[in-house]
Structures are given as C-alpha cells and as structure tokens.
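User: Working on a comparison across species. This one is Siderophore ferric iron reductase from Shewanella japonica. Can you predict its structure so I can line it up against the others?
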Amino acid sequence: MSLAVFNDIYQQCEQISPYLKGEILVSDRPDSSLISYHGSNLANIRSLYQSIKLQSPEAGQAYWLTRSWDLLTWQPLYVAITAIYHCQVLPDLCNMSQRHQDGVVAGFCFSCTDCDTGEYHQLVSVAGQQLLTIFEHFRQELDQSVRCRPRFVEHLIADALLSRLLLLQQTNPEFSATFIRQQAVLWLDALSLSDEHITKIQLSPITNQLVFTRSSCCSVYKTVTGQKCANCPKLKQKSV
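Assistant: Here's the predicted structure for Siderophore ferric iron reductase from Shewanella japonica:
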C-alpha cells in the first residue's frame, strides 16, 4: 500500500484529535518511549501508572488503573475506526507503536505500510481480531503491576467503542443512526463482546440522535478538578 494512503489516514486522525498524530517509523534504532504489541512494555506501563498516580494521588487505584488502560488502548481503536470509515482500509494494527511520555500516551507510528481493503464488515472483522490480540497483551502486562482482570476491561472496551462510533456520526452526518447501530453490532461481535452492550445506545425521541449511556466509570470525579461525566453510570438516569 502506498504512503499516500497512510498520509490520508494520518490527516483524518489529526482532524479527530491533534494528539492522534501518526508517522511512518523509518529508524531501526530502539526507542524506549514506544509501546507496542511486539516485545515487553512493562517498564513503560509501570512508568505510565506511576505518573498517573503521582499526578492525582487523591483519586485512588480505580482511577489510576482505568486511566492507564484508556491511555494504552485509545489510539489503536481510534486509528482502526478512522481508517475503516474514512478511508475504507485497515493498516496492520499489530505493527503500530505508541509514544509514551510523562504519563501521556499520544502519537503513533507504523513500521510497515501493509493494509487490508474490503467492505466495512470485512475490515471490522479483521480489526476486531487485531485489537483483541493487542488489548490482551496490554492487559496481561498491566496486570503484572496492578490487578487488571478481563471482566473489568470488557466494559471499558465496549464503552470506548460505542463512544467512538457515536463520534463518527457527528463527523459524518451521512451515516444514519441505523447504520451506526448496525456497525456497533458488527464491532461487538468482532471484539467478542456481549451484544447486550448495544442497549447502551438509544435513539432520543427528542433530538432524533443516538444517545450513549456508559456502564463503566472513568472515576475522574475522584480527582481534585474532576466531576462526573454527563453520561456517568453513577448519575441518576434521566429521560432522553
């Protein structure tokens, strides 16, 4: 696949977030700041967790763990969804590395330009397999520093996925609510997640837009400056 395709993916990613900045890895020299599926990330993950803990010592372990997990996994998911729905391709996520510095994971690079092409359902299936492999690798490594069990991350993955799909509808209004829900079902299956999670996104009769209700809590409200998110499961549910 040509570099032009990757440049297109990177441009689309930066439009989603300036922190989602991609590049092609051209140097063979080891870079200790990179986190990837290949090899051990234990030192970086311990450093990430400790940095978060030092930044918000008052927040407690639930926040430190959830924040660590979210930072480790947000970019692969965002890159996959952006590449599939904006460019209809999928780079090999297992060859993706992420940059870590001072408790922040932002920026990524690929060591090769391999890509899959196909229909949405085909690319989602491949992406799900790759993400499952990557996420499990990170979970096992994080679990060596602090207890991180599969059931705990399942809800975090599902919420991150559904939240990103709803953002996709905001940036691509041509994607109908029906289409987004159909894609959500495909993704849940591809990531071996319960189809019950689909009930978290409902069509609001007031706005005629999809509304998302989380089942996991990021615990940011436990930090000094944090507060409960608008769709926090700890808030009393209101009619949409």
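For your comparison, note: The chain has six helices and eight strands.

User: Helpful, thanks.
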